[in-house]
Amino acid sequence: MAGLRVGILGATGAVGTELLQLLEERSLPLEELRLLASPRSAGQQLPFAGETLPVVEVSEDAFQGLDLVLASAGGSVSRQWLPIAVAAGAVAVDNSSAYRMDGAVPLVVPEVNPEDLAHHQGIIANPNCTTILMTVALWPLHRVRPIQRIVAATYQSASGAGSRAMAEMKDQAIAILQDRPPPTDIFPYPLAFNLFPHNSPLNEQGYCQEEMKMVQETRKIFHAPDLRVSATCVRVPVLRAHSESLNIEFQTPFPVEEARTLLGQAPGVRFVEDWQRNYFPMPMEASGQDDVLVGRIRQDISHPCGLELWLSGDQIRKGAALNAIQIAEVLLEKNLLG
Amino acid sequence: MAGLRVGILGATGAVGTELLQLLEERSLPLEELRLLASPRSAGQQLPFAGETLPVVEVSEDAFQGLDLVLASAGGSVSRQWLPIAVAAGAVAVDNSSAYRMDGAVPLVVPEVNPEDLAHHQGIIANPNCTTILMTVALWPLHRVRPIQRIVAATYQSASGAGSRAMAEMKDQAIAILQDRPPPTDIFPYPLAFNLFPHNSPLNEQGYCQEEMKMVQETRKIFHAPDLRVSATCVRVPVLRAHSESLNIEFQTPFPVEEARTLLGQAPGVRFVEDWQRNYFPMPMEASGQDDVLVGRIRQDISHPCGLELWLSGDQIRKGAALNAIQIAEVLLEKNLLG
Asked: Please, where in chain A does CATH 3.30.360.10 lie?
C-alpha cells in the first residue's frame, strides 16, 4: 500500500489537535491528510509536519478518495456524516458515543479486543475515555480470572469537557485567587478549587451518562454481558488526565503479587508504585503519556476476593486520540482498510 | 454551674481558629478562656468576642482550674499534656489520633454515640475528619439495617493538611498559571491542578493511616467490630471541605426512598439533591457549614443490597472543631464535666 488518505472530522477540537500530533509522531504512512470541520471552523489553517493544512468544510463530496476517517466532532456530526464517509469507501473510527452500543459496530481497545475489528462494517467506535483507561488496566487481570464486580470512583479533569473548559477553569482559579466571582459559562458550577458529580444527563436510576458508559462499554469490550459495574463519576479541578479508584471483586482470591506481575507486563500499562515514597500514579505525570499509569494495588481488606487499584491516564491521548490511531494501525496491519 | 473555664491547646492552628469562632457563635457558658500553645506560638494575641486574648506557653501549671481542655495540637502534644490536664481536674476533648483507639477512651460523634461519653475517664477522642463525615451520613441507615460493607473513595481538600498547606496550594496554582514550577514545601507533590493518594504512612497491606482511621474508627463509633470497610483516600486541589463517594452493602435491599426519608430527617445532615439540575453536594457549598451535605443516593446497579451515596462536609468544622464543641455541649448537658 503506497500510503493512506486520511480525513480528520473535527480537526480543530482538543482531540483533533491530539490526532494531528499523533499522526506526526507515529508511523501511519500518509499519502494525504484532509482536515474537515463544521462551517464555523472551516477556513482555519493548522500546522502539520512543518506545513500548513487548510481546514475545509465537511460536505457530501469531502470524503471522496479517503481510506480512513477519524471523527471527533460529537455524536450528531458523526451520525450525519460517517455513513456518507463509509458509502464513499472510507473506514471510519468514531470518537463520539453515537455508534458505541450499536451491535454491528465493534467497540475496540487495541490492548483488549483487537480481534473485534475483523467484523467491522465501515464504522468502528472508540470507547469513552474513562472506559478505555479502566479496561486497559483491568483486562490483564480479567483474562486470568474473570472480574465479577467493579465499583469505580473517578477523578476527571477539566479537559474531558474540551479545551474551552480547561481555559474556563484557569480563569476561575485566577478569579477565586483574586476574590472575584468565578465565570461559569461552560461548567454549571465553579470547578476551580471545587468539584462536583459529573454533569451529564441522569437516568431514572440516578446514574449519569458518563457512569453508564463505564458500565455498558466495559461489558461490550470484555464480551462480559453479565459483568456487574457501578461507577461514580466526579469532575475535579485538574487540567488534564483522569484518575480512577477501582474496587474489583473476583470469584476467588487474586494474589496481589500475581496482579502486580501481570500489570507489570501488560501492554499500554506503566506500573507506578514506590511504597517507600508514597509515590503512585498522578494526573500531572500521566498528562501527555501514552501509557495508563497503574499502581497502589492492594488486597481489599473488606473482601477476601477483592483488589483495590488506582490509575491515572491522559484521557485526550490514550482515552481518545491515541486509541483511535492505534485502531487505525491495527486496521492497516491486518489489511482491514478498504 | 456558673460558667466553664476552658483551655484550648493549639489555639493558633486551623482547628484552633475554628474552635475560637465556634465558642463565639455557640452557647457554651464561658467563665474563662485560656489559650495554650507551644513556645513557638506563645506570645501571640488572638481576637475573641471583641477582646484580645494572649496565647500562653503550655506548662505543668497551665491547666490549673480548668474544667475543659480542647486539644488540637497533634498527637505527641496530646500524649504529653492531656494526662496532666486530666490530673489537674479537667476533662479533655482531643482532636488528635493519640487516644482514639484506646479502649478506655470514648470516640464520639454526638449524632451517633453520645451515650459513650458516660464512661469517660477524663479524655474523650474526637474522630478523624473523614470518619466523622462518613458516620454522620451512614448512621441513620446503619441503625435501621446494619451495614455489612463500605467501599469509600475520598476527595480530601488541602485544608486537611493545615492552613499552611492551603496557602501552599494557592501559591502552587499561581505558579502553574504563570508557567513557573510550583513550590512543594509541605506537600510531597504539587497539589494544585493535580491530585495524589493521601500521603500518610502506609501499612504492610498498602493502606495508609488515613484509610485505616476510616476502617477502625467507624467500627468503634458504630460498636460494629465486624463491619467491613475499605477506603481509598485521595488529596484533591480543593481549598476546604472533603467529599466522599460511598458504596454501601446491606444484608437485604435498602429501598432508596426509605434511605432518602431517613437522611432527610437525620441530625447533622443536610439533604442536597436536585436531579433535574444535576445539583448535589459540593465542597464549595459545604465550606463553613455545620451540616454534612448528603445526596445522590442511588440503588447500586451492581449489587441488589447496595446503595451509592455522595457527601461533602467541612472537615475543619464538623470534621474537627464543631464535633469537639458538640461533645463539650453534651458533657455539660449530661453533667459529665468535672
From this structure: 131-315
Query: In angstroms, what separates the C-alpha of A147 from chain B's closest C-alpha?
Result: 12
Q: What is the pLDDT of residue B86?
A: 98
Tell me the β-bridge partners of A232: A153
**SS3 of residue A267 by DSSP:** coil
The DSSP secondary-structure symbol of A159 reads G
Q: Is A242 a catalytic residue?
A: yes
pLDDT at A97 over 60: yes
DSSP state of A182: P
- C-alpha cell recorded at residue A38: 463544521
Specify whether A305 is catalytic.
no
pLDDT at A1 over 60: no
Answer for the pair A325, A72: CB distance below 8 angstroms, yes or no.
no
Tell me the average pLDDT across A204-231.
98
Catalytic residue selected from B119, B198, B242, B305? B242
ipTM: 0.96
Q: Best of B212, B242, B302 to disrupt the A interface by mutation (most A CBs within 10 Å)?
A: B302
CATH of the domain spanning B4-127+320-333, picked from 3.30.390.30, 3.40.50.720, 3.30.450.20, 3.40.50.150: 3.40.50.720
Residue A204 has pLDDT above 60, yes or no: yes
Domain span(s) for CATH 3.40.50.720 in chain B: 4-127+320-333
Tell how far CA B176 is from the center of its chain: 31
**Contact at CB, A205 and B299, closer than 8 angstroms:** yes
Please answer yes or no on whether B284 and A193 come within 8 Å at the CB atom. yes
Strand A292-299 vs strand A269-271: parallel, antiparallel, or unpaired?
A: parallel
Closest approach of B283 to chain A, Cα-based (Å)? 6
Which candidate in A120, A142, A198, A242 is catalytic? Answer: A242
Among A128, A69, A129, A74, smallest CA distance to A101 is for A128
- Rounded to whole angstroms, how far apart are CA atoms B5 and B68? 7
CATH superfamily of A131-315: Dihydrodipicolinate Reductase; domain 2 (3.30.360.10)
DSSP codes, B240-292: S-EEEEEEEEESS---HHHHHHHHHH-TTEEE--BTTTTB---HHHHTT-SSE
Q: How confident is the model at residue B136 (pLDDT cuts 50, 70, 90)?
A: very high
Would you call B283 and A195 a contact, using CB atoms and an 8 Å cutoff?
Answer: yes
Q: Rounded CA gap, A204 and A207, in Å?
A: 7
Quick one: A307 exposed, middle or buried, by C-beta within 10 A (0-12, 13-18, 19+)? buried
For residues A119 and A106, the answer to whether their CB atoms sit within 8 Å is yes
Residue contact B296–A206, C-beta within 8 A: yes
Fold category of A4-126+320-333 in CATH:
Rossmann fold (3.40.50)
Instruction: Summarize pLDDT for A278-314 with one digit per residue, the tens.
Output: 999 999 999 999 999 999 999 999 999 999 999 999 9
Q: Do B153 and A245 touch (CB under 8 A)?
A: yes
Express each pLDDT in B228-269 by its tens digit.
999 999 999 999 999 999 999 999 999 999 999 999 999 999
Segment holding A209, helix H or strand E: helix A209-222
Residue ranges for the known binding site of A are: 12-15, 40-41, 100, 156, 159-160, 235, 315
Q: How far is A150 from chain B (nearest CA, A)?
A: 8
Residue B334 — very low, low, confident or very high, per pLDDT cuts 50/70/90? very high
- Would you call A264 helix, strand, or coil by DSSP? helix
- Who contacts A229 (Cβ-Cβ below 8 Å, separation ≥6)? A149, A150, A152, A214, A215, A218, A219, B301, B302
CB A163 within 8 A of CB A13: yes
Domain B131-314 has CATH 2.60.120.10: no
- Tell me the three state secondary structure of residue A141: helix
